[in-house]
Fold these 3 entries.
Entry 1:
Amino acid sequence: MNFTKDPHSHACPIEAVITHVDWLLTVDFEEKKIAGRGSYQIQHQNASEIILDVKGLVIEKVELEPQSSTPVFWLSEPDSILGQGLHIPLEAQTKRVHISFSSTQDSAALQWLSPEQTAGKTDPFLFTQSQAILARTWLPCQDSPGIRFTYTAKVTVPTHLLPLMSAQNPQEKNSSGTYHFIMERPMPSYLLSLAVGDLQFKPLGERCGVYAEPSIIEAAAQEFLDTENMLEAAETLYGPYLWGRYDLLVLPPSFPFGGMENPMLTFATPTIITGDKSLTSLVAHELAHSWSGNLVTNATWNDFWLNEGFTVYFERRIMEALYGEDYAHMLHVLGYHDLLQTLEELKHTPEDTHLKLQLENRDPDEGLTEIAYEKGNLFLCHLEALLGRVRFDAFVTQYFNTYQFKCIDTASFVSILENELINGNSALRDQINYEAFIFQPGIPAGVAVPSSQRFHQVETQVQLWQQGTAPAELETEAWSTHEILYFLKKMPNTLSTAQLQELDAAFGFTASTNAEIQAAWLQLAIAHQYAPAFPALQAFLLRVGRRKFVLPLYKALLATEAGTQMAREIYQQAKPGYHAVTFSSVDALLAKS
Ligand code: BES
Ligand code: ZN
């Protein structure tokens, strides 16, 4: 195994590395605590110690196997981002270490939800979010994406609840409350996950299914009906799915992300359930991570674009296979707009717009911008355009196949490009211009700007409306969510209250049950102080914890004094319902204002 130095982990895998873990976990909803014991198989050659990452955990006991005098483990000075190194002295013959631990209030990966925060309102719920470096806040581990291990877990929960993990999962509750999980394929720690709630399973096909609370399971199954087709399309593109089953779990609305690619069990926000399958590119995205990310993994968070750029590209190829080119083009254009906006926001820190990031001594969360996603995707689209699809697809298939269950850093990717594609052809090297994409800011000159036929029609309607056509007269019947989002994006910078009222009356934006549309509309409402939308704004911020929605709304509010007042009032109520990932970001935002 080759290991790249990871600035976000204390582990020294070259010295001693974990290869397998057996966990025993007891989930206590009264105490809001997970009590655990892990038995860690390790590989080393006469290493003097093994180092794990921990943060916000209590380490109760450490034992070696074969047993020796009880080792004196020690914890390094806490770092506010990285937590502590858990140093365990080893003996030459040590095969395993056993660690007893428990979570605390500071276990930032965990969100303990009250029954009121769930769909059913009768049972509590727990979920984890480990990416990027929060696995260490609920389980001691070598928390680096470059280190892979297999695991099992025996998890005990209250008998009326069902636990699920990124592993082979049960499909129904049992009477004992104890469940066994196995993950047979080696995976990095950031994909460790657990959810516990009143959950039900419904199959979607042979290899796919969905878990959700009983009151939303039917709607979820309906929404995700095409999942098996997506899986087949993905395999046709880039080779066999190697993880066995692919299931989805619908979380309560406080889930801080849209989706999280936990192996065998994607975690998803309920805000993509719209009734018309219009936001399922998120499923294609998380599914695509089963290749880009989970099979071939970024070596460190500086190489995050290798995970997300490839995944965005792959996601849109899946969507194209299912719904056609026109559909994929809309996604590319919306993504490109987001990229331009991000470039504008990051104009004072241009290094953060390189694909290859420098996140040492920073929270890897700072790398979570549209650069990795959309500039990464743009680079791959650029490669596709230069090489042709046939050749580029063969390259990607071979890349996934050659590096499966391994990690890759940006430098290795550059050598792969050089050896597999460029092959000494300096004209091609100049055209590809990877140097500019990877190591320079902004968008390289001469790169094709994505465009969409369906969006041109939207632009026409925007013009007609601006020239006085009533909204009801516009040609909008055939519009999907994406056209509506583009329509809202294309609104002039200033809108009168009468115009907002007119749009709202025609399209019902304030009361939209599509979270993506509602959030885009609420942005406009805040910018124009359109008061009729404020109750909906407050309700949205109290219910939804998805950071991508929540953060821009607070940001927009903070632009004015009255808005700032409102933001603070709402946030005071809303904060206890947010996951740490979300409230840390909002806290930082408010601290600046
Ligand atoms: N793996 C990411 C989420 C993530 C990244 C969590 C970094 C923590 C740190 C996931 O695959 C993702 O990209 N989710 C997106 C959805 C997607 C369709 C762009 C999200 O949550 O918005
Ligand atoms: Zn992703």
Entry 2:
Amino acid sequence: MRKKIVAGNWKMNLDYNEGLGLFSEIINMFKDEATGKQQAVICSPFIQLHSLAQLAKGYTNVAVGAQNAHQAESGAYTGEISAKMIKSVGAEYVILGHSERRQYFGESNELLAAKTDTALKNDLKPIFCIGETLQEREAEEHFNIIKSQLVEGVFHLDETDFAKLVIAYEPVWAIGTGVTASSDQAQEIHAFIRIEIAAKYGQEIAANTTILYGGSCNPKNAPELFAQPDIDGGLIGGASLKSRDFIDIVKVFN
Ligand code: PGA
């Protein structure tokens, strides 16, 4: 059975101590309240990764991840952080292709394919984000956009590597807007993603791929979203900055 995952994306929020404080609250609540087999992943800014990974030791269902990694192994890229560096501080995951990276930093599917390769080579599990803009949905292009993000971003991988990915569907119009995709809209795309994976890699890999929903997910709407057959958890932005809200979303799987 595929893994149920609730991942928090802190984005560029919280200073060092604020992040440590929030993470301590989260792991304590996780220990006391989250009784299922679900996995929580906190994707913090780089500066906290090492400390959070230390705090997470001993909690098999809590992991930490980065929000980006460079495509090169190392070299003269002032200000950048490599996958190897991220791995070396104890992080297990890395978000790649978030719509904010695509939009504000011009990250293309081609670049993201290279980032995915480097992350996998360094033993990080990518949480690979895909999703259409409002304009694309209104033009009824959303299925084509999702398909090309998959084909150009990750379908070059072999089966073994593909099986290490987590996919996150995040409609851009739902991120940070308070507007969520309805559970039917989300399920429709998640089912489509799984069908595309099955066509490329076969039923077994498709059935085992964790596909997260992201975009204004909160404790109120998570139960209905996560009840959909092809939604295996969430990638949570705003609500991951409040320990109570984040844990209540994790607990939907109890
Ligand atoms: P949001 O962000 O939950 O604040 O909409 C989700 C994301 O960007 O991953």
Entry 3:
Amino acid sequence: MSEATVAPDWTEAGRKLFAGSCEFIFAAARSDGLPPVGPPEIAFAGRSNVGKSSLVNALTGRNSLARTSRTPGRTQELIFFDLNGRARLVDMPGYGYAAVAKSKSESWGELARDYLRGRPSLLRVFVLVDGRHGLKENDHETMRTLDAAAVSYAVVLTKGDEVKAADQSARIASTLEGLRKHVAAYPEVILTSARTGDGVAELRAHVARLLAERGGSRTAIAG
Ligand code: GDP
């Protein structure tokens, strides 16, 4: 590729990336049943009901790719989608739903933790946090797991349409403040809404840029 003289248009790159095909490829309920390592993976984690399925659907422009409104906490699976052969999107099980029996939520945690610790193709995790409430203790717990596994992650606030415009920058600032004690957190927070589409182009751009800059190399993201 010739040397770029203008900054790449990541928004356009993101639009193109997500305009291509996106297909379900695999659901794994056990860590010894993961699909073989392939293209770089971008995973989505968050508390049950945070709006994860809705955001994955908004990102990919599909209404029903990821299952929305499923029983919170019920799906104990990692769901893999192929994004145009360039990357995989991984929908992780929701955490922190009180009605999930402790033993079941622990086995969920085991699957998620095994995946996070041992997946060389995992490029970034988006930790989704309900924009109406900000970071909760179990979000910090998830981020501590990610810190310990040296997995790079970024926090994405959801349901931004329910946060008053006047409160949005304060919510972003307090979330950024909460990230300071986490070593592997990307120091940027994107406020999104699956309902209005706010922040979705920004998130696509983030993924396109990540794939362009760091595609494939786990070691390159450790710092
Ligand atoms: P998941 O359990 O994290 O996959 O969450 P879902 O995507 O199924 O959404 C959980 C609930 O939040 C549903 O009632 C959605 O309609 C609602 N929801 C999801 N995204 C948004 C959003 O951007 N704005 C608002 N206001 N509600 C949302």
